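S.,

Sequence below, as promised.
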Amino acid sequence: MNALWLALENGWRDLQQQHGRIALATQTALLFFLMTLSLTSASIQSYLADNLDQMLGSDLVVESHSALTRDDERALRRLAPRLSVTKISDITLTHQDRWARVQLKRVDDAYPLQGKLQIGDTPVARQRAVSRGPGVGEIWLESRLATKLGTQPGDTLVIGGTRLRLGAILFHEPDRIMEGQGTTQRAMVLSHSLDAASLASSKGRTRYLVTADEEQQRAIEEWVRTALPGATVIRKIGGRHPLASFWQRTENFLGLAAVILVFMGAVALDMTTRRWLASMRYRLALYASFGVTTRTGIAMALGQWLAGFILAILLGTLLATLAYVLIVGQLQEQFPGLDAAWHWLPALKTIGLVFVLLLALQVPSFLQLRRASLLSLIRNPAENSFVWHRLFWSIASVTLLAAVYSDNWLLTGMTLAAIAAALVLMVALTWTVIRLGDLWGRRRAGLLPFAFFIMRQRLFAKSAQVLGLGLSGLLLLFTLMLMRDLSTTMEQYGRSHDGNLMISEAGADQIAGIRHWATQTGSSVRALRPFVSAQLVAVNGASLAELGDKRSDTLATLKDPIRLSWAGAMPQNNRLAGGRWWSADTSNWRQISAEPEVMTDMGLGYGDTLTYQINGKLYAFTLVASHAYQPGHGSITFWFQVPLAARAQIEAPTLYMGSMELPEQAWDALAGLWQQYPSLALVPLRELTERFDRTLGIVTRLTSVYAVMVLLLALFVLAASVSGFSADDRQKNGLLMSMGVSKADCLKLSFYDWSVTALIAAMGAIAGTWSAGLLIYRSQFNLTYSPDLAWVAGMVVAMVASVCLVGFIACRQSLNVSVGELMTS
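The prediction came back faster than expected:
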């Protein structure tokens, strides 16, 4: 009990010191960020699970991107007591000169299986419940869509030449869960009312809503797994919401961003640990002189650290709870009914993760304490060998966090590689500059040569200080500069290389109509690239579901149909990134090339077999090459490409994507084109840029909050840098003043010391940010990274000035005491 009380008392005394407060604030900040992230994500996942139970509209849903064959549908009906078939198509709906992109649901007579539809006579009318969908020749529009098109019940709408009467305003569908929580506007018709051929689209989906008991659901799942490789199954009980994986990947992204915060926290904690170690060595040596064993002393040190961590948990949890409540309040517009309930398991998991991370950072300190003795206290041993221990455990801690959250190892690897390269550069610069400065000053007199001599004697300590400040500056610049330059570059590139209207999908029979319309309106078709809609269903014979629960954006995208194109020679806007491209006249059509990021994220290698479902049939290709995008010849590219000879073997309709340039007077004529081809997917560039700007606005707000966290930890690092080395500086100043050196000269020496430190750290930070920009721009977008040099120079000056100012103030304060106090401290 006495040992425990003494450990707590030591912890309280450390909190009264600057290094103790910095360590507590750093741990609290890390807990606050990760706890807020975990609680918010858990609340959303819980909401989605409840939403799935209440709004699936059936016991089970089978979704396929192509309609089942008659034999397969009969087999499903034998397994399901009741079945309703709905078909989803993305079309453009027009009324007079107004138009809107719509998700059209075609339902059968059995819809809805469970629950009721809510409709009304006007967008603001009282709702009424009905148990059947629209009648023959009717269409129902949701209230937002009716308002946008300026329609009301009784009006006539034309879809692909078919005239439909607006029968009601649609407010609620019991199977709305399957549409997600997006802002897509919806319409509903009876399947018999429209010709399916006019609505053909690669994005079309067919859903089979089923009522079945537990045993029947298991039988259906097993049948789908073997008979329908491209289909997905969602169950009401024990199922997973379609948006759950999206929000999991969002959490992954934000958690991965925490790698930077943890790295900065590790730097701050490492610097404050110097003072903590000095006091603990003194205490343990003193305890040993009274007969206390080393094991007991280390146990007391561990207890003191645990007490500080528990206090950080309390403070971090309190702050995270407040932030969590505020965030949930902001999210209630997207998720009506979302509440800020407490989630114990995610909170405990996060605390456990942070505990492991911080404990890993403390391992070198406890190893160093094992050497504490009366003799070591007298000798004050050098800690050179432990610098590498601390660096190793810091990197191991950050790698652990990346392993927990990363869903894109290519980006993660590039970020960590840039950090590692910057660290190596800063170590090399530190040793080179200080050693050369020492050699230069050996035959010269003055304060600057003497400053290099002192830094040469403290080379390992100076290296640690440079690494800390440089890494902090790197991560701060990485957050502020790279995000800004990326958004600016991408926006300028997208708006200068494409036309003002994107053709995201057009059928072969629609191309002639587009060209005729373009001639009539004075428009021009800039580019057209052919493709077929293909869904990856297996890799080396293993289905995507068997690849494991890998939370990856690439995998999530590949679970839906993608665009598969073909080429003889390498397209002009692509370059060979690996493997061997086929000859233009090859007859071996079972070859395929993939983009490097797809290969990395999916773990693909040359020689792998990729199986695609195309128009209901399976096709296998061998991965032989990798192609990457390069700018200058159009922005249309594809994740996967096959030889020209493959097109003759694939039985599927040819689709096209491309771009057009429209004069101002042609925009009003688009409604007529969409009335003729409702499934034609055209997206105005201004709409794309508006989406980009909205997304950029959200990213900017998130980045601003994140930048505040990074800046806060950067301040902690700067304060820790001064605090961690204050004892050394006080001792140095005491010795110098005892030998007759004036306070003014001590201040000059300190200024030289901090200037060299700040300059080396700034050069390392800029080099690290530059290498990260080059890697990410080249790999992800194949663009040239061209940062604003004036802004970079300004940041370097600000960083050097800040470090020198803080160091100068700290030195001046330490000189306000007597020489005797400096020596005894």
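Residues 2 and 773 are 55 Å apart (CA to CA).

Coffee later?
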